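INPUT
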Amino acid sequence: MCTVCGCGDEEHKHEGHGGNTRQVSVETDLLARNDAHARDNRAWFERERVLALNLVSSPGSGKTHLLTATIERLRDRLPMAVIEGDQQTRRDADRIRQTGVPAVQINTGKGCHLDAHGVGHACEALEPPRGGILFIENVGNLVCPAAFDLGEARRVVVLSVTEGDDKPFKYPDMFQSAHVMIVNKLDLLPHVDFDMDACIEQARRLNPGMEVFQLSARTGQGMEAWVQWLEAQCSGRGAISDGQELETLRQRVAELESRLQQAGLMKS
Amino acid sequence: MSLAREVLHILENQARLQKFSRVHAVTVTIGPLAAVDGPALHFAFEAVTQGTLAEGAELHMEHPAARGCCRHCGHCFTMDSWLTPCPHCGGPAQAEGGQEMQVKDLQVSDEGMRRR
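OUTPUT
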């Protein structure tokens, strides 16, 4: 078969279809570069004992309000930082900074999602919130951000009751890849046709382990369970990472000692 | 669009590694559960390759079947989407693969190099 035009005729000629073309094997993942940056980010988060959360949703689900309400409740208990992703404007980062928490804005321009490379650079501008949380608010979009690992520990999909209860099945790529689903704007539930049980059933059909929180960032209803879950995630992380940090330091000391010995500067 | 740019980036890298100057055809493997739309990738590929070593190149897509096993009864079957139910009991599937996005192979030559 002609690999240029797909026809069965081996004899015909057109540009690229002749004796001087050859086939080369490539087998490279389209996301290989992003995944490498995501691995670097994940290693950095673990080293700095930061719980990184990637918040994804459609535009207008209330992600930024959820963040400011979360920060208000956790401000005195945990260090936090925020990376804000939007196509344009610095409004969201400004809203976060008003709470007293550091925020870096990434403007993606024509881009419809954050990628691991951009997040890595944004982290350079942040003092890591050691033992606390880095919230990464992705661009409002339930399609493209699904494919791009940012190095996060948990992906949190936010959905509001005004959007309809069939979002999980409409955007399965995103919902199957998320660890947590937050159903926001619970205060509006009496005014809209939103079947909570059906929505949760759809989400858990795609991902049986999905943690679900129903809350209203505006009224505070349900916020406590979410905040407690965040604290629990951080406390586990700190304990494990202390051991890891010690082990990393031991390895580094051993490595330095062996280099000193090789250089003849230290007796074994 | 960013996936199409990644395809071009891979082609430019491979041109250096495997020493060719022109790409005539690209075969990509896209699993049925990968978060990418075939026609959109075609359109974006045509746009980003203008004026490059791959201008006018054909983009062929292969869609390998995705396998999944039912979380309830364990029966394994072919999945077309994340929502494909178990044909035995209607239960939800645990996917095994199907999210591949890969540049598989190229048809290349050393002639007709177009410079940017």
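end of record. The first helix of chain B runs from residue 2 to 17.
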